[in-house]
Amino acid sequence: MYARGMSQRDISSTIEDIYGFSVSHEMISDITDTVLPDLEEWQSRPLSNCYPFVFVDCLYTTIRNEYETKKYAVYTMLGYTMEGKKDILGLWLNETESKHKWMQIFDEIKARGVEDIFFISMDGVSGLEDGARAIFPQVVVQRCMVHLIRNSIKYVLSKDYKAFTAALKKVYAAPSLKACHSAFETFQQQWATYPRAVDVWKRNFSHVEQLFDYGSAIRKIMYTTNAVESIHSSFRKVTKKEHS
After folding, report:
1. Is residue 50 within 8 Å of residue 110, measured between CB atoms?
2. Which CATH superfamily includes the segment(s) 43-144+226-238?
3. pTM: predicted TM-score of the whole model, two decimal places
């Protein structure tokens, strides 16, 4: 109940309604507080020294305490170890998403032992790319294809989503850079009726071209994986309002 955003007062009332006895706010607070040391230990644990792939994203979610309900930005960072295992590097709360906060997070993971990151997939938050390179100078920064798709289809009628995204896949999943350029030309002509959607890809096409600096296996990881999304999906479930 606490995870679903219910206040201590709501939890106490719900228990009394269902089970017929009351539980003090202090007891509920004591119970929820028992997990905090474990959470703090997990959040500050040492990390691997190298992550080939790291995916970063931010989710806005509503959090309620005894006094107010407020939206917060949850910063999420997930990496793949050299052995190919997923590792959530950490979760951070802040009132908004900002370059300054991301810089603090990159500093923190370096202090916790991360020496090298090969690829970072991220959205287009202003300054985020420069912030990542300031801490990890050799990192390759890749715009997340999932974010670009979302940013573009908001300008497309829902009846055209399927055909539009299928045409896009022929661009970023092309077998070669030459084929990518050819597919992009076709895409621009085919979807000229949605100039704002096409413009999203024109402005970010260098990030698509960058994919072809690497082999097909790496390209596929970078354009098919939005690993953070499954974490955010879990957040949405547990923070959904009780009566929604």
Report:
1. no
2. Ribonuclease H-like superfamily/Ribonuclease H (3.30.420.10)
3. 0.77
CA distance 24 to 9: 9
Alpha carbon separation from 214 to 6, 91, 170 (Å, rounded): 47, 30, 17
117 in Cβ contact with 136 (< 8 Å): yes
pLDDT of residue 89: 94
What's the one-letter identity of residue 78? L
Nearest to 16 by CA among 28, 4, 29: 28
Q: Please give the Cα distance from 74 to 95 (Å, whole number).
A: 9
Tokens (6 digits) for 234: 């879990």
Q: What integer pLDDT is reported at residue 244 of this predicted model?
A: 47
Q: Where are the domains of the chain?
A: 8-34, 43-144+226-238, 146-224
User: Which parts of the chain fold into alpha helices (H)?
Assistant: 8-19, 25-33, 36-43, 99-111, 128-135, 145-153, 161-172, 177-190, 195-203, 205-210, 216-224, 228-238
How does residue 8 score in pLDDT terms, banded at 50, 70 and 90?
low
**Can you list the alpha helix ranges (DSSP code H) found in 112-215?**
128-135, 145-153, 161-172, 177-190, 195-203, 205-210
**Residue 18: what pLDDT?**
46
Tokens of 90: 């950490």
The better pLDDT of the pair 102, 25 is held by: 102
Contact 187, 167 (CB under 8 A): yes
77 membership: H or E segment, kind and range:
strand 69-80
